[in-house]
Amino acid sequence: MELPEPLLRVENLSKVFVVGLFTRRRIDAVKGVSFTIGRREIVSLVGESGSGKTTTAKIILRLEKPTSGRVLFEGRDVWRDLRSREDILWYRRSVQGVMQDPYGAFNPFYRVDRVFKQMFKLLPKDMDDEERWGLVEKALIEVGLNPRYVLGKYPHELSGGERQRVMIARALLVEPKLLIADEPVSMLDATLRSGILKLLMKLRDERGLSILFITHDMGLAYYVSDRILVMYRGELVEEGHPDELIESPRHPYTKRLISDIPLLYRKWSDI
Length: 271
What we know:
The strands form 2 sheets. The chain has a 6-stranded mixed beta sheet with strand order 6-7-8-3-9-10, with helices on both faces. The chain has a 4-stranded antiparallel beta sheet with strand order 2-1-4-5, covered by helices on one side. It is built from 11 helices and 10 strands.
């Protein structure tokens, strides 16, 4: 039986940065990376800072142009096939990102409702304001927030977990098919982390959302993932089902990441 086409396919992706005015030193941030993400699947990309995880995410989100390779979404090359404004808007609706620092996405001088107003341009033009704000309320409720409480607040009046849930609700507003979550819980304490991770799994199960979960923490990846990809110095060095990867790691870097998991569990058990 023929396997279904994955939602996202990354093929031999590379990104080279050239730095220095005179030395023109090359930095290979991403080197020949290939992987897929299926529908209704959470795939974790795990690696230390500087391993190329965020650069890969930015290329998928069309924020950073690749040096070589392809990113295919529903069979379309997102860097070569999407030329018109309509095509690019389609992709922005289909693929949304949630970044590490939710506070950085807010203007501290404006209330939270402004964050959602900025997304209205991606909604159908024939929608009126009542319909748009109805979608906002629905998204906030889905991530466990009270719209009446949140929308009138300034960013500093919300907790870190609330701000991150607001950013997830913002992404859900346009009903994306793929969510790129780049270290979405690294700035939260263990209790809030658990809530966000459960929310991501709920969105996969109930919305059919696919998620690329980017983290440096193998314990979090094991908890939330259907598959894990390990990235080291710009290369994809290992991948597999979480249980298989934990029980039979092959690469030395994967083994090093796994060695930290028991310590993580001990910390969680103290909560």
